[in-house]
């Protein structure tokens, strides 16, 4: 699993954190912690005024590595995934500077947690967003999906495990820009550069101020959801549903 950090030339004050974990960027426990560390480190750097969260490969993020959970006869991997996801989502939300998510392909499960906590989203035309949690024996990230779509749509998407397109989210105002796949990186960097052109101290104050007036405590809300994930595991429901993963017709 690779989480890399780079500073593209010609984009002063912008740091790019990129995930590349084949085949589908479904992250193991350590991957979520590595991502959290990279985002926090970028935000702490006084030379950075905006962070771009990006991915390589077939899609932006496919959530938790289900196979890692299946290999664990106990609950250690589940607890690790719960805590790791909470750390990564919190790192994006609490990053000291604005975070722009550059979304390609699928953005599922934990991917929704990342983009839902980002400050802005730029997506390629092929991007789709959704929470297949009920099909994976899990719960969670409704907190973050609710930041992307209206309440009743969030519930319908959650119950059905359906996805929505980048164009649909753009219509709801949660995706800033939809671009051809080949132009995603340039578009995300252009937005980040526009943000990074502002005074760095004021940007950090603005980020703290905007987080402070949020109507929902996203970290507490998400951890509340995770309690039901663990309850489903203790009841045996999660394992029964999760064992169907990869065996769908």
Automatic annotation (TrEMBL):
Name the UniProt key words of this record, in alphabetical order: Lipid metabolism, Lyase
Q: Does the keyword Lyase apply?
A: yes
| Residue ranges crossing the lipid bilayer per the database entry | none
| InterPro entries noted in UniProt | ClpP/crotonase-like_dom_sf (IPR029045), Enoyl-CoA_hydra/iso (IPR001753)
What family does the database annotate?
Belongs to the enoyl-CoA hydratase/isomerase family.
PANTHER family associated with the record: (7AS)-7A-METHYL-1,5-DIOXO-2,3,5,6,7,7A-HEXAHYDRO-1H-INDENE-CARBOXYL-COA HYDROLASE, ENOYL-COA HYDRATASE-RELATED
Q: What is this protein called?
A: Enoyl-CoA hydratase family protein
